[in-house]
Amino acid sequence: MTVALIILHAAPEAENPRADTAVRLAGAMLAEGKDVRLFLAGPGVRLLFPSSSATESTQALFRELLELGLTVQCCGSSLKSQGMDHDLPQGVTKSSMKGLSGWISEADEVACF
């Protein structure tokens, strides 16, 4: 099975659709039968928690993909720097740059946003 890694370092904002594109790409890759992993870093960790800056459709699709088996890790340092060092949504685990490095080594495909 193809392992696809998407790294999201952009905040989920309506004016900057990179997070929306990353989530939609994850859905397309899951539909193709790939093992899809999403790593959230920097402002990208804001995708984990509903906010006024993220579009409702992006948040809804993200939650749906979690239920469908999307594997998500997020940078613990980024959570702290974004003031989000609290309980994570079900299906999301805290990780580190070491964890990301391991995922990069295992991936057949990598996309960054």
Task: Name the strands of the widest sheet in spatial order.
Answer: 4-3-2-1-5
Q: What is the radius of gyration?
A: 13 Å
The low-confidence parts are none
Number of helices: 4
Largest sheet: 5 strands, parallel
Helix percent reads 25-40%
**Secondary-structure element pattern, one letter each:** EHEHEHEHE
- Compute the average pLDDT: 93
Overall 3D shape: globular
Instruction: Report the strand count.
Output: 5
Q: Determine the N-to-C terminus distance.
A: 23 Å
Question: What structural class do you assign from the helix and strand content?
Answer: alpha/beta
Strand content: 15-25%
Structure description:
The chain has 113 residues and is of the alpha/beta class. It has four helices and five strands. The chain has helices at 18-31, 56-67, 76-81, 97-106, and strands at residues 3-8, 35-40, 71-75, 92-95, 109-112. A five-stranded parallel β-sheet has the order 4-3-2-1-5, with helices on both faces. α1 (18-31) links the parallel β1 (3-8) and β2 (35-40). α1 packs parallel to α2 (56-67). The longest helix is centred in the first third of the chain and has 14 residues, at 18-31. The radius of gyration is 13 Å and the shape is globular. The mean pLDDT is 93.
